[in-house]
Design a protein that fits this description.
Layout lengths: L10 E5 L2 H4 L12 H6 L17 H15 L3 E5 L2 H4 L9 H16 L3 E7 L5 H4 L8 H17 L5 E6 L1 H9 L11 H24 L7 E7 L3 E3 L4 H24 L4 H11 L8 H7 L4 E5 L4 E5 L8 E4 L15 H14 L3 E7 L8 E2 L2 E2 L2 H19 L4 E7 L18 E3 L6 E3 L1 H12 L3
Parallel strand pairs: 1-2, 1-13, 2-3, 3-4, 4-5, 5-7, 6-8, 7-10, 10-13
Antiparallel strand pairs: 8-9, 11-12, 14-15
The chain binds methoxycarbonyl-substituted glucoimidazole (GI1).
InterPro entries: GH (IPR017853), GH_1_N_CS (IPR033132), Glyco_hydro_1 (IPR001360), Glyco_hydro_1_AS (IPR018120), Glyco_hydro_1_beta-glucosidase (IPR017736)
Keywords: Carbohydrate metabolism, Cellulose degradation, Glycosidase, Hydrolase, Polysaccharide degradation
EC number: 3.2.1.21
Length: 449
C-alpha cells in the first residue's frame, strides 16, 4: 500500500487503565478493589505480581503526560478507579481521588491531548463485591451514581466517555473461567452479570443525558470484538461460528444497538443456565439509551470448528499457521477490516473508535538504549492499513488508541507481558520510548505513513 493519509482530525491516541498503571493503592484514601484482593491471593497472578506499585502513574502522571506530548498524542484513553472516588463503592466521596483526576485532565488539556475516560476498567470496589458485586442488581445503581459524580466533576472538560471496558471479559473471564478477579467459575453467574453490566451501562448513559454536562459530549461503550472464521465450510463448523460469534460478539452488540438479546443465544442460556434474570422494563431501558460511539478493542481473530461434545456451545478453537504474539494471539490485521465492515453493515454503528489495539512481544532487542520492537511497529502498521481500508470503504472510524501507552500490569500475567510503546523499567520506573513510539510519533505528525 502506497503512502496513506487518514481523515483530517483523526484522533491518534494511546490507552491505559487505572489498576494497570497507577499503583499508590493505599495512598490518599483509595479503597480496596477486587483486583487488590485477587492479586494478593496466592496463585492468582504470575510471579505473585500485584498492582501495588505498577508504573506509579498516580505520582508520576505529570511526567507521563509530558512524554505523551513529546510523542504528539492527540488523545489519551484512561480509566477512573472507582475505589479512589467511592472507597466503599457508594456513600462517602474521597475528595483526593477527585483531585487526582481533575489534575490529570487539566495536564492533558494543557498538553493539547483530548481525554477519553473509561468509567469501569475492572477495578470494582471490594466493598461492593462483598455484597454480591455485579450479581447484585443494586450495584447497577451505585455505578450510575458514580458515573454521575464523574460527569459532574470532569464533564465540563471531558467530552468523550466510555461506560464499560469489555463487559464480556468482566463477566466471563472473572466469573466463569476464574482467571480474573473476583475469580469465580460459574457460567450461570457470568450470564446474569452480563445483563447487570448492560443495565448499568444504560443507567450511566441515562445519567449522562441528565447530567447537564453532555453538551457536545459523546458517550459509548467499549466491547472486545473478535471476528470468527470457520475451520472448514462444513455445516457443523458454521454452527460453531454462529455460537462463538453470538457468545462473544452479538450478545452485547444486539442489546446495545437493537435493544434485544440475540434469540439463539438467549434461548440457549435460558435453557441451560436459567439466566439472565430480566425484569420488565430492562430491555426498554437498554434500548432507549443509545450510544454516540462504539469503542472496539481488537487484537486477533478466532478460527473455530465443531467440538467433540454435542450441543450448540460445542466449539473448538483452531490455531492456524502464522505469526503469533507473546499472548499466543494470531497476528491477523485482515480481521480488523472484516470486523469494522461487519459492524458497519450489520449495526450501522455511529462513530467508531478503536479503543485498544496492540501487541505483546519479547522486547528483548535493544539498540543504543532503545527497544527495537520492529515486530510491534509492523503489527501496528498492518492494523493501521486495515483500518484505513475500512474508512475508505465507508466506516465511520474516528480514532485509534494504541494499547498501550506504556508497559504495565497485564492482569493474571503480571508484568511478564509488555504491550507498551514506551518501555518501563520496573526496578527504576524509568520510561523510555521504544522504536514503535518514535515511529508512531511520525505517523501522528504526518497523519499517515
Ligand atoms: C482479546 O484481548 C482483549 O480484548 C483485551 C486485551 N486487553 C484488554 N482486553 C484489556 O482491556 C486491557 O486491560 C489489557 O491489558 C489488554 C491486553 O491484554
Amino acid at each position: 500500500m502506497g503512502k496513506i493519509t487518514f481523515p483530517k482530525d483523526f484522533i491518534w491516541g494511546a490507552a491505559t487503565a487505572s489498576y494497570q498503571i497507577e499503583g499508590a493503592v493505599n495512598q490518599d484514601g483509595r479503597g480496596e478493589s477486587i483486583w487488590d484482593r485477587f492479586s494478593h491471593t496466592p496463585g492468582k497472578v504470575l510471579n505473585g505480581d500485584t498492582g501495588d506499585v505498577a508504573c506509579d502513574h498516580y505520582n508520576r502522571y505529570k511526567e507521563d503526560v509530558q512524554l505523551m506530548k513529546e510523542l504528539g498524542l492527540k488523545g489519551y484513553r484512561f480509566s477512573v478507579a472507582w475505589p479512589r472516588i467511592y472507597p466503599q463503592g457508594k456513600g462517602q466521596v474521597n475528595q483526593k481521588g477527585l483531585d487526582f483526576y481533575n489534575s490529570l485532565v487539566d495536564e492533558l488539556l494543557k498538553a493539547g491531548i483530548e481525554p477519553i475516560v473509561t468509567l469501569y476498567h475492572w477495578d470494582l470496589p471490594q466493598a461492593l463485591q462483598d455484597i454480591g458485586g455485579w450479581d447484585n442488581r443494586d450495584v447497577t445503581d451505585y455505578f450510575a451514581d458514580y458515573a454521575f459524580k464523574m460527569y459532574d466533576v470532569l464533564g465540563d472538560r471531558v467530552k468523550k466517555w466510555i461506560t464499560h471496558n469489555e463487559p464480556w471479559v468482566v463477566a466471563f473471564v472473572g466469573n466463569a473461567f476464574g482467571e480474573h478477579a473476583p475469580g469465580y467459575k460459574d457460567f450461570a453467574l457470568a450470564v446474569r452479570i452480563t445483563h447487570h453490566l448492560l443495565l448499568s451501562h444504560a443507567k450511566a448513559v441515562q445519567a449522562y443525558r441528565q447530567s447537564g454536562n453532555d453538551d457536545g459530549g459523546q458517550i459509548g461503550i467499549t466491547l472486545n470484538l473478535t471476528p470468527v472464521y470457520p475451520d472448514s465450510d462444513s455445516p457443523e463448523d458454521s454452527e460453531a461460528v454462529q455460537f462463538q460469534d453470538g457468545f462473544q460478539n452479538r450478545w452485547f452488540l444486539d442489546p446495545v444497538f437493537k435493544g434485544a438479546y440475540p434469540e439463539d443465544i438467549l434461548e440457549f442460556y435460558q435453557e441451560k443456565y436459567n439466566a439472565p434474570v430480566i425484569r420488565p422494563g430492562d430491555m426498554e431501558l437498554i434500548a432507549d439509551n443509545h450510544i454516540d460511539f462504539l469503542g472496539i478493542n481488537y487484537y486477533t481473530r478466532a478460527v473455530v470448528k465443531k467440538g467433540r461434545e454435542s450441543g450448540f456451545d460445542s466449539v473448538e478453537h483452531v490455531h492456524p499457521e502464522g505469526k503469533y504474539t507473546e499472548m499466543g494471539w494470531e497476528v491477523y490485521p485482515e480481521g480488523l477490516y472484516d470486523l469494522l465492515m461487519r459492524i458497519h453493515r450489520d449495526y450501522n454503528a455511529p462513530n467508531i473508535y478503536i479503543t485498544e489495539n496492540g501487541a505483546a512481544f519479547k522486547d528483548d532487542k535493544v539498540v543504543d538504549g532503545i527497544v527495537d520492537d520492529q515486530d510491534r511497529l509492523e503489527y501496528l502498521k498492518s492494523h493501521f492499513e486495515a483500518a484505513y481500508r475500512a474508512i475508505q470503504d465507508g466506516v465511520n472510524l474516528k480514532g485509534y488508541y494504541v494499547w498501550s501507552f506504556m508497559d504495565n500490569f497485564e492482569w493474571a500475567y503480571g508484568y511478564s507481558k509488555r504491550f507498551g510503546i514506551v518501555y518501563v523499567d520496573y526496578e527504576t520506573l524509568k520510561r523510555t520510548p521504544k522504536k514503535s513510539a518514535l515511529w508512531y510519533r511520525d505517523v501522528i505528525a504526518d497523519n499517515g505513513f
